[in-house]
Automatic annotation (TrEMBL):
Domain Primase C-terminal: 235-299
UniProt-recorded name of the protein: Primase C-terminal 1 domain-containing protein
InterPro entries: PriCT_1
UniProt-listed Pfam families: PriCT_1
Length: 301
């Protein structure tokens, strides 16, 4: 199923029962002009352009607990290290047998080469399987194409914007490749697990192996050990709905600094917390909130 909606509000339209390839083959992008003003860009991305989620939802409110599964991998390719021509050629070579959709994101041209890659799967995946495959593609399959993976790709209920035509992007840049088959989940997960077993590197604050383990096998910690520090650290990965995200960043920043956590470590931890939000804040908003609280707690030189 394909659900359409805006970033704001987080309400999705009733699902469309089409394959992702059929949907994109029939989709007509709107035309927009992308301003170099950050506030205008934000408005365009949040309330003007439609986005989508492919999978199954149990309610039409976009949040992690309402998303049952996904049936496409979706990767934002923002930190591209090759030319646009080389990017398109590399994706074609790596995914030649499989169906995929590749199109410029709204920031393409204004901020360099920026594309979105959509890979239909042969069966739906749950959250842990999805994150493992995203991590595998970002760090293994796309190695040499992108530098630092966009960590928002790991957000389970993230909405991704549909293609638009801008002063930098044209219709012919939207590539819908039918392929011979859909990407096979069983093979993909096996390959990802083998690779991850030996992968030790920590990328962008997301640690490889521990992130994807099933923690439901463990009993809850004894309640007698719980305190405000326990709740503070848990809040880093609890996520947050729109409307309270800046407050959550401020609370985490202030709480960690008050406990004498190194200021650089606090900054990295609030960036991790942001990626668990239903809709992550921009890097600029996170930094502004962090520095505002840090100045109050620590003073400024």
């Amino acid at each position: 199923m394909i659900y359409i909606g805006k970033v704001r509000p987080s309400i999705m339209e009733p699902p469309i029962d089409k394959s992702i390839i059929q949907f994109f083959s029939e989709y007509t992008p709107i035309k927009v002009n992308v301003s170099d003003n950050p506030e205008e860009q934000k408005k365009l991305k949040t309330i003007v352009i439609d986005g989508f989620i492919a999978g199954e939802m149990k309610a039409l409110i976009r949040k992690n607990e309402n998303l049952i599964n996904r049936d496409c991998l979706i990767l934002d390719l923002d930190d591209v290290t090759v030319s646009e021509i080389d990017l398109i050629a590399a994706i074609k070579q790596k995914l030649a047998k499989f169906a995929y959709v590749l199109y410029p994101s709204v920031s393409h041209g204004l901020k360099g080469v920026r594309y979105r890659l959509v890979i239909p799967l042969d069966k739906p995946v749950n959250e842990q399987e999805y994150k493992l495959l995203i991590y595998f593609f970002s760090n293994k399959i796309l190695d040499g194409i992108i530098h630092n993976a966009d960590q928002s790709n790991l957000t389970w209920s993230q909405i991704q914007l549909l293609p638009v035509l801008t002063q930098y992007s044209k219709q012919e840049q939207i590539i819908v490749h039918g392929g011979e088959k859909l990407f096979p989940i069983s093979d993909g997960l096996d390959a990802a697990k083998r690779w991850l077993k030996d992968y030790k590197q920590d990328t962008g604050g997301v640690t490889s192996r521990k992130l994807y383990k099933n923690t439901s096998q463990f009993k809850k910690g004894g309640s007698r050990y719980r305190n405000t520090t326990t709740e503070l650290f848990e809040s880093i990965v609890c996520g947050c709905e729109e409307g309270n995200r800046n407050n959550r960043i401020a609370q985490i920043t202030g709480g960690l600094l008050a406990r004498a956590v190194d200021v650089k470590a606090v900054f990295e931890l609030v960036k991790v917390a942001n990626q668990y939000f239903t809709e992550p804040l921009s890097e600029k908003e996170v930094e502004e909130t962090f520095y505002s609280i840090a100045k109050k707690e620590l003073g400024a030189n």
